[in-house]
Structure formats: structure tokens, C-alpha cells
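User: Just a sanity check before I run the rest of the batch. Below are the C-alpha cells for the first item. I only need the designed sequence back.
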């Protein structure tokens, strides 16, 4: 690595610099991806909740292959709540970490049935009390199922790209979310998250970034 690259990786950015990079990023990605949407296929808030739990350490493509049959067999929280956990495990096995994911889905479904009449709440505080639901899942469900911008969804793509572009100096999802929430207009939280994920999949792939073709190449800091 060159000395110039090392300095770029180590430099701490000012708030003004990050806001400037953010504005350029929003403008470029709006042109590149004018109609962003959640990649997890779902028909209602509950399906999105389950799909998002399944997406941990798993690709959205794989989740979308599993959920049609899963939701046909278990169409409501009540069906999941009454299902033998071993059967749920078998149905989601290809998504990885299926023991913990199945347990969380069944427990979350039971809580929804017992405490919310089987309806997914549109409250961040209520969602994060469900088994298997953290900040990312709650933000994803609220943003995409209810149109509520509760916080920036920081997945592996957003985490990596935020530092590479220069939008955050942080390295954890929680800290990166704090930075993005602070510098990004709330009305951009949902769509910009989707657009960064699109960018991470199409151009800024972790092992083989296509910087020359990337719509952000003119201003991205390309930090490690």
C-alpha cells in the first residue's frame, strides 16, 4: 500500500467533509438507482420481520428462495407459534444458523400472539423486545413495512461502504448508524440505505471493487 493510501485510510474526517461527501453520494445514487426498494420479498410486516431475521449472515437471494414455501406452510404468527421448532429448523436450514433463527422466529411469533394479537407493532421499542430483533431488524421493518424512518439500516454493505466513501470513521454498526443518522436528512434514511446496498452488490464488492465503473468514483475516498 502506498503512503498516500495509508494516509487516506488513517485520516479522520471533519463533519463538514462528511456532509459534503454525503450530498455527493445522495445525488449520484439517486441517478444510479431512482427507485430503490427492499430486496427481501414480503407481503406484510410479519413476513418482512421473519425474512429480516433469516437474513442475518445470509444473502437476501437465499432468503427469498426459502420464504415462499415457509410462508405457505406458516402464513401467520399463530402458525409459527404452534409449530414444532424442529420443523421450522428444517424449513430454514439453508439460511444458516437455523437453530437460533428458528428459536427466535417461534419465540417472537408467540410474543406477537400473546402481547399484540398477532400484529407486528409499529414501535421501535416494542420491536426490539421481540426475540431475534435488534436495531437493524427493527429499523428495516419500520422503514419498509410502515414507512417510518426510525434509524439508518446498517447491514454489512452499509457498514463497509460508509467508511470507504468517508461518511463515517467508525467501525461498528451502532456507531456508524449514529453518524449516518446525524448527517443524513431523515427523509433519506430509508432510500439511501437501499441505494448503498445496491452499490455494494453491483460495484463496491468487498473482494473485487469495480472502482472505475462506480458512480461514486469521482469523490469516494476509497478508504480501507
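Assistant: Here's the designed sequence for the first item:
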Amino acid at each position: 500500500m502506498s503512503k498516500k493510501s495509508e494516509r487516506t485510510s488513517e485520516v479522520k474526517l471533519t463533519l463538514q467533509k462528511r456532509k459534503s461527501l454525503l450530498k455527493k453520494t445522495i445525488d449520484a445514487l439517486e441517478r444510479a438507482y431512482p427507485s430503490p426498494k427492499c430486496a427481501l420479498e414480503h407481503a406484510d410486516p410479519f413476513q418482512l420481520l421473519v425474512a429480516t431475521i433469516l437474513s442475518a449472515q445470509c444473502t437476501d437471494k437465499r432468503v427469498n428462495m426459502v420464504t415462499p414455501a415457509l410462508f405457505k406452510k406458516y402464513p401467520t404468527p399463530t402458525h409459527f407459534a404452534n409449530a414444532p421448532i424442529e420443523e421450522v429448523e428444517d424449513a430454514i436450514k439453508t439460511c444458516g444458523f437455523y437453530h437460533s433463527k428458528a428459536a427466535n422466529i417461534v419465540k417472537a411469533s408467540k410474543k406477537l400472539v400473546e402481547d399484540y394479537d398477532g400484529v407486528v407493532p409499529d414501535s421501535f421499542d416494542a420491536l426490539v423486545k421481540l426475540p431475534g430483533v435488534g436495531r437493524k431488524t427493527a429499523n428495516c421493518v419500520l422503514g419498509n413495512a410502515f414507512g417510518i424512518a426510525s434509524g439508518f439500516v446498517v447491514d454489512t454493505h452499509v457498514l463497509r461502504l460508509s467508511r470507504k466513501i468517508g461518511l463515517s470513521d467508525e467501525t461498528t454498526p451502532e456507531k456508524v448508524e449514529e453518524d449516518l443518522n446525524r448527517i443524513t436528512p431523515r427523509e433519506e434514511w430509508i432510500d439511501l440505505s437501499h441505494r448503498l446496498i445496491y452499490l455494494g452488490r453491483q460495484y463496491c464488492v468487498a473482494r473485487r471493487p469495480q472502482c472505475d465503473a462506480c458512480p461514486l468514483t469521482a469523490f469516494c475516498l476509497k478508504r480501507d
